[in-house]
Amino acid sequence: MNRKYRKTIIAGNWKMNMLPSQVKPFADELKAVSPRAKWCETVICAPFVDLPAAIKAFKELRISVGAENLNENEKGAYTGEVAANMLVDLGVKYVIIGHSERRQYYGETDFSVNKKVHAALEAGLQPIVCVGESLEEREMGITLERINLQVKAALSGVSAEKMRRVVIAYEPIWAIGTGRTATAEQAGEVCGAIRGVIRDLYGARIARAVTIQYGGSMNDKNAAELLAQPDIDGGLIGGASLVPAKFAAIIAAANQE
Question: Rounded distance, CA 123 to CA 193, Å?
C-alpha cells in the first residue's frame, strides 16, 4: 500500500449469498468486532435484492455499498437487468464490473466490460474493474500479456478525468474460490504491471493515484502480507467477507502502520 498517493479500499463481494433479512444482523456483528477504519475505505458489494437493506444498515458504520453488476444500457426492454442510474438512485457508490464469474458463466467479454465501465462512470458510479488470467495462461507464461489486454480494453475511451474514479482488481482466476492464493510477490508483480499499463495510457501522476486491489482468495490469514506489497492497495474479498470476524481482520490488516 502507498497511502501517500492513493486510497486503500477493502471491498467485500457477497456474490449470490445473504438474504435481505440477514443484512442487519451481519452489520451489527461487524460493528461489534470491526476496528475503526483509520486508513482505508470499506465497501460491501451485495446482490441487488440486498442493496436497500445494506445502504440502511451500513450507513452508521460508514461503509459504502456497491453492486455486483449492471447493464450497460440506461433503460429499455432488458428483462431482469439493472441500470447504473437505478443503482445511483438507491444510493449505491461502487459497482463490480467484469468479475471472472460473469465472464465465465454469462459470456461477458472485454468489449462488454468496456461498455459497462462507461455506463458506470457516466452515471457517477465508481467501477471496480476485474482482470485476471487463467491457470493455463499463467503456465504458458502469458499472464502479463493477458492482463495488459484486459486493462487496455476495459479502459478504452475512458478520459483521464474519469480514470481517477476507476478501481482495478487483479483476481487470478485460478485463485478464486479455490483456496489457492498467489504469493505476495506474484500478486505484487502483476499489480505493478497493471500500474505500468495505466502509466503508459494516462501518465505517472494518474497511475500512482489509482487504487489496485488483489482479489484472489485474500483472507484474514494472508491479508497483511499481501497488503504490504507497494502496488496492492486493498482487496476484493469473497468468502471471507461473509464472516464478520474474518472481514474485520482484513480491515485491521489494511489499517496497519
Answer: 29
Could you say which DSSP state residue 42 is in? Answer: E
Q: How far is Cα 226 from Cα 217, in angstroms, rounded to an integer? A: 11
C-alpha 54/C-alpha 151 separation (Å) is 30
Catalytic residue flag (residue 118): no
Q: Give just the sign of the alpha carbon dihedral 227, 231, 234, 238.
A: negative
Cell 467485500 -> residue:
12
Which strand (E) or helix (H) includes residue 55? helix 51-58
∠ CA 103-10-112, rounded to 5°: 20
Q: Which of 72, 99, 108, 133 is catalytic?
A: 99
pTM comes to: 0.96
Question: What are the CA-CA distances from residue 237 to residues 9, 22, 33, 175, 249 (Å)?
Answer: 11, 19, 17, 12, 12
pLDDT on residue 92: 98
pLDDT in tens, 130-162: 999 998 999 899 999 999 999 999 999 999 999
Alpha carbons 127 and 10: distance in angstroms, whole number: 14
How do residues 106-130 score in pLDDT, each as one tens digit? 999 999 999 999 999 999 999 999 9
